[in-house]
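User: structure tokens for this one?
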Amino acid sequence: MKLDVNALRYMERDAWRTLIAVEMGMRNHEVVPVQLIDSIAALKHGGSFKQLRELLRNKLVHHENKHYDGYRLTYLGYDYLAIKSLLAKGAIVAIGRQIGVGKEADIFEVVNEEGETLALKMHRLGRTSFRAVKNKRDYLKGRSCSNWLYLSRLAAQKEYAFMHALGENGFPVPKAVECNRHAVLMTMVNGLPLTQVGELMNPAYCFKQVVSMITRLAEHGLIHCDLNEFNLMVDEDEKFTMIDFPQMVSTSHVNAKMYFERDAECLRIYFARKFNVDQTDGLDIIPKFEDVAIGTTTLDNALEASGFTKADDKALLAALEASGFTKADDK
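Assistant:
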């Protein structure tokens, strides 16, 4: 669904209270009963019923009456709540055009109070390949409500925590600015995705850069799990920036060696095919997993320090694996 913020400008206080009431009700319900929404919103004279009709008209909620009369948030409604919070905090003051779209996220230009252009990434687990997860709900044991908004929030929390930790340790990543619900605010990366670059001045040196990234990550106890030409940004000086971290795993993960080798092989094949990098250019410099995944420095603790627990990570990774995104037999 396209992000249209026009209605956001004119939403009144009662509408926001009703939208938040739906969000709160979804902690325990996939579809929140109308009576519960009305109770949480606590508007006078049943005002929430009128507000629900208006929210439905603007596609911020979805109405269902299969088993009972109720509503649930749409991604657009979740977008509005995240944007409203970021605006209230002063983290952003304006939203611009969409600059990126993927199978699990959309990215928009935004502006902060200083006039700096930032990137706002909205996670959208549940579309395209992720829809396969809906039939595999084991990763949500212990929760009475399973929904894509919850998983998208986990993905955003994990990405923000890792982005911050990696940046603090000198890795070339965007600077993590703020996180709210399923939205991650970060600095804009100058450059293009590697997949859009037709020619490199020094492809062999560039390949060594990305191998160094993979190696340093493993030395810090992490595997990217999806480091490819779509998740590497390159600038005019042929310096690389790494993006997209929700699927990242620890080197202690049961499939860590496979993920490490898959990332390395994917990049080796890409540089060989597109930029004609061969053994004489250093194509065989990729180290063995056993030789690099022995460092004493680990960034796993950065997750728990941010409030993202091991249980949260287990739920998110199980969802990604169920979708085939980080499947062990997916070479």
